[in-house]
Amino acid sequence: MTDRAPTVVDAHVHQWDPFATPRAVSGVAKIVRRAPAVLPALLRLFPRASREFIGDPRYLLDRYLPVDYLQDSSPVGVDAVVHVEAGWRTKDPLGSVDETQWVSALPFGIAGAPVLGAIVVHADPSAPRIAELLDAHLQASALVRGVRCIGAHSDDRGVMNWTPNAHLYSSADFRRGFTAVAERGLSFDMWVYGHQLPDAITLAREYPDTTFILDHYATPVGAYGPSGKHTGTSSADRRAILGRWRDDISSLAELPNVVAKHSGFGMPVLGAGARSHDELREAAAPLISHLQAAFGPQRTFWSSNFPIDKPNVALPQTISILREVLGDQFDQTRILRDNASRVYRLTSN
What sequence ranges are listed for the domain Amidohydrolase-related (predicted)? Predict the structure, then answer.
């Protein structure tokens, strides 16, 4: 870190290079780089759920590195970022450590790019070698602060699943193995779809001394509009999705060891699609307002989720929409810096 405290912390960014690192799209990215005209045909080979989740494949099929993030974030003046694991593909049980090493070597803090303040690594607590993996991550970088293992799963076959286990976080193996995360004092980023919030509550309640960070509002798929094959297809359906989400968010917020990110409100899977600034603000307002009311000013903070949200929203908009929705409740110092710095233990030297 620099010798001063950061003014703005972006607590959720992704970096990747599909040409030089192992990603699910690496093969396609290399083909498209050589022959861009084949992209439309290649995309048809991907499941519809994957295509709809991505929104615009250009952001996955090309590099996204510190210089690219700087270009997106320069109007905001981000000083420090938290890198969150981003789909490093490997069959080696310890292979995700390579991502930690790769991210640590990226040119953050150079030529105007923000510094790398913390790293959230990939590790699956249900894996047999979870303790060994976590120790390897910690040895790879002193910036490792937390773990993420995505639990997002939908029964709608048109919605992208990130795990075959519909109840990953509440499964016996996951909860048993989570002891390794807790014993090392690491935080845990939770990302589930809205209807899975009870599983997140079960896990967070079982480990009260671990800090849990809720990502992306626990994405209530279809809350903005139709998504997948049959989710959010009517106004009544969308009201039910939001009603259940509100109740479960309130229950999760009752646990004092859980904090939440204002992130991901531009994700295509919400049913966002291409919207004007005002339209996106109106769609996102119920998520933003209720999360802030439930968790309060000391347990929420902004994160861009870039470049995943980029197809639908510019990075400065992710802050301006928050500011417009929250009004007087927008505590800039806490939401843009202090809370994230505390949760991810960012230092000033």
Answer: 9-346
Domain assignments of the chain as residue spans, ordered by start:
9-16+65-343, 17-63
Q: Which helix or strand (DSSP H or E) is residue 117 part of? A: strand 115-122
C-alpha distances in Å from residue 185, one per residue of 112, 114, 116, 244: 32, 26, 20, 32
Return the closest-CA partner of residue 346 out of 187, 145, 122: 145
**What's the pLDDT score for residue 30?**
79
Tell me the DSSP string of 287-315.
HHHHHHHHH-TTSEEE---BTTTTTT--H
CB burial of 256-270 (b: ≥16 within 10 Å; e: otherwise) equals eebbbbbbbbbbbbb
β-partners of residue 16 are 64
Cα separation, 157 vs 193, in Å, equals 14
pLDDT of 5 over the 60 cut: no
Q: How far apart are CA 297 and CA 253, in angstroms?
A: 12
Which three-class secondary structure state does DSSP give residue 268?
helix
Distances (CA, A) of 265 to 133, 286, 315, 331: 32, 10, 12, 19
Q: What is the mean pLDDT of residues 135-160?
A: 97
| Total number of residues shown for the chain | 349
Question: For residue 39, what are the CA distances in angstroms to 13, 58, 97, 216?
Answer: 26, 10, 31, 29
pLDDT digits (tens, 9 = 90+) for 170-224: 999 999 999 999 999 999 999 999 999 999 999 999 999 999 999 999 999 999 9
Cα–Cα distance measured from residue 96 to residue 324, given in angstroms and rounded to the nearest whole number: 39
Measured CA to CA, the distance from residue 222 to residue 227 in angstroms comes to 5
Q: Which residues contact 300 (CB under 8 A, 6 or more apart)?
A: 259, 260, 261, 262, 291, 292, 334, 335, 339
Q: Tell me the pLDDT tens digit for each residue of 226-271.
A: 999 999 999 999 999 999 999 999 999 999 999 999 999 999 899 8
Judge residue 129's burial from the number of C-beta atoms within 10 Å of its C-beta, 0-12 exposed, 13-18 middle, 19 or more buried. middle
Range 9-16+65-343 has CATH code 3.30.70.260 = no
> What's the mean pLDDT when you consider all of the chain?
93
What pTM did the predictor assign?
A: 0.94
